[in-house]
Amino acid sequence: MKIFRKSIRQIFVNTLVLLIVSGVSIIRLAAQDQNNDFEIIKNLDIFTEAYKQLDIHYVDPINPGKLMKTGIDAMLGSLDPFTNFIPESDIEDFNLMTTGQYGGIGALIHKQDEYVIISEPYEGFPADKSGLLAGDKILEVDGQSAKGKSTDEVSKILKGEPGTTISLLIERAGVEQPFVVEVKRENVKIDNIPYYGMVSDQVGYVKLSGFTQNAAKEVQKAFSELRDKNEMKGFILDLRGNGGGLLNEAVDIVNIFVDKGELVVSTKGKDISRNKSYQTSSKPLDTEIPIVVLVDRASASASEIVSGAIQDLDRGVIIGQRTYGKGLVQNVLPLSYNSKLKVTVAKYYIPSGRCIQAIDYSHRDEEGYAYRVPDSLISEFTTKGGRKVYDGGGINPDIVIEPQAFYPITQALFGEFVIFDYANKFAREHDEIMPPEEFSITDEIYNDFVAYVDNRDFDYTTKSEKTLNTLKEAAETEEYLNQIAPEIAELEKKLIHNKAEDLKTHRDEISEILRIEIVTRFYHQKGKVKASLQNDPEVEKAIEILNDKVEYTSILSGAVKKASLR
Q1: Which of 307, 289, 327, 301 has its CA nearest to residue 389?
Q2: Catalytic residues
Q3: Are 267 and 346 in contact, with CB atoms under 8 Å apart?
Q4: How many whole angstroms separate alpha carbon 42 and alpha carbon 197?
């Protein structure tokens, strides 16, 4: 029986080789003047022959689908990180990227020790309606142990056809025994705008977290409501952390603020059919209200089209940090068996003519690393009004505000889920809190948090301690350690951090993160954004600029050079 099965598989693989080679041969006959035809045929033949020999001779059973996906992923990995193979099993994740919706329970999850934990149930969706809470540990899914499974593995199990039910065995702090929660999957739609509102008497604000379908309509609706219901004289569009999405939504968002017929972005590729220009096609909603766009290092792709076009057309002021620098356009091509290939087909160029792609994936060093565009190749361009702007990687803001660098204790408290776990404890012990914009960390709350930290197995390493460890390793390698051992020991004694003292010294920084985390337990994503706006230096600077018409106009006219705040 094994011989017969192996023979069938050999016949299948040999037939596959014949079909591929024959097909490529036909292509070759139709285009004999192309120099790389023979290389295509030769390498496809080698690939299929290697696959056949592995299938016949490899000592252990081979999973054909997994092996082929590994091969495809490795092949695409030599190009750029945005060209990806999407198997049928990952279609739900792909749909989420493009539509913002998927079938599932509606919750963020993360890995903590050996289990996956509910990070946050989306308000109004199945996880929330079923009573799941942040901090709930998933022990089993439909009777199968979830121990040791990755976040991706559990995520794929939780997703599924709307209307189907999934059974979760949950362990919850404060509850003696694990319990079962039945969750009925629904069509989960993640809003492009988690929050919008007025951040001062005259300044409106929209947080845009994605560019999935209808993002432009959502921005237009939010903007109209803020303008019509308030005396709005300035507007902030927050694109921080927004990794992009659909190009047409970016064009339509720019169209809300600029006249019809303006070039927003153009694409250029090897295939001339990819060379297209995208212009605003509708009457704008408002071309007068001053605008500030907030960006950071995670603002990419469609976020860079919007912020770059707003800058190039002198329609608004950009504040924050230089953006990611993704100027590559992807199209999704259908493959057989409901799989897809997301492939980079062009580069995009914003109105001034600059390409904001930061990394040249076509050139790599000996270790396979791609190069960033060197300063010597950065070119100067001009905005519509004549201001100087530059290519070479991302959108450089008109006002640069350096991101906050957190102290090691704060990073550790957050990264090791101490703040997360305390926020869950706080939520169990309190039925309600003040509104997000009013809630604060009192002495009583902070002292309780300090006591909680003292009872945790928690430690961290300061930058000074890391530097000293590096010195010790270098001294040992160079055989100097014995000579400087007394000095090293003295330094170690002086640098031993005092956890209690650090909790006191950095209270303001720690309290801010703790405040936002606790607010999220009671007011979900909308509350989280509202709470984070209270002490946001970039929002504060945006409000200042929008309230100062002279400075705002001076920046857009080029009279004020780019500023940097620390």
Answers
A1: 307
A2: 301, 312, 326
A3: yes
A4: 61
**Could you give the C-alpha distances from 473 to 275, 428, 484, 486, in angstroms and in order?**
55, 46, 12, 15
Separation between Cα atoms, residue 387 and residue 48, nearest integer Å = 55
Q: How many Cβ atoms are within 10 Å of 500's Cβ, its own excluded?
A: 11
Q: Residue 192 in contact with residue 211, Cβ under 8 Å?
A: yes
Here the tokens at position 175 are 């509850």
Residue 469 is given by DSSP the state H
The tokens describing 70, both together, are 């590994």
Alpha-carbon torsion 97, 99, 104, 105, what sign?
positive
First to last CA, the chain: 73
Amino acid type, 7 = S
CA separation for the pair 352, 361 (Å, rounded): 23
Instruction: Report the distance separating Cα 491 and Cα 459, nearest Å.
Output: 19
Find out whether 16 and 22 touch, Cβ atoms under 8 Å: no
Strands 291-295 and 234-238: what pairing? parallel
Specify whether the CB–CB gap between 255 and 216 falls below 8 A: yes
Q: pLDDT per residue over 246-264, tens digit each?
A: 999 999 999 999 999 999 9
Residues 6+ apart with CB under 8 A from 46: none
* DSSP-derived 3-state class of residue 194: coil
- Which tokens in the block code for residue 251? 């064009």
pLDDT of 20 strictly over 60: no
Q: How many CB atoms lie within 10 A of CB 397?
A: 26
pTM of the model: 0.84
Mean pLDDT within 176-195: 94
Beta carbons of 295 and 395 less than 8 angstroms apart: yes
Measure the CA–CA gap between 445 and 528, rounded to whole angstroms.
19
List, as own/partner pairs, every contact residues 493-499 make where C-beta atoms lie below 8 angstroms and the sequence separation is at least 24, other chains included: 495/462, 495/464, 495/465, 495/468, 497/409, 497/460, 497/462, 497/465, 499/409, 499/453, 499/458, 499/459
Q: How many residues does the chain have?
A: 566
Please write the tens of the pLDDT for every residue from 65-124.
888 888 889 889 889 999 999 888 787 777 776 677 788 999 999 999 999 999 999 999
Structure tokens at 525: 């994503």
Determine the Cα–Cα distance for residues 250 and 239; give it in Å rounded to an integer.
11
Query: Helix crossing, 302-312 with 247-255: angle to 10°?
Result: 30
CA distances from 2 to 13, 49, 57 (A): 16, 21, 14
Cα separation of 292 and 551, whole Å?
13
Give the angle 43-46-47 at the CA atoms, nearest 5°.
85
Query: Which tens digits make up the pLDDT trace of 23-40?
Result: 544 444 444 445 677 888
**Neighbour tally for 269: CB within 10 Å:** 17
By the 10 Å C-beta count (0-12 exposed, 13-18 middle, 19+ buried), 452 is classed as middle
DSSP class of residue 391? Answer: -
Residues 428 and 174: beta-carbon distance below 8 Å: yes
Can you tell me the distance from the alpha carbon of 296 to that of 298, in angstroms, rounded to the nearest whole number?
5
Closest CA to 94 of 345, 331, 340: 340
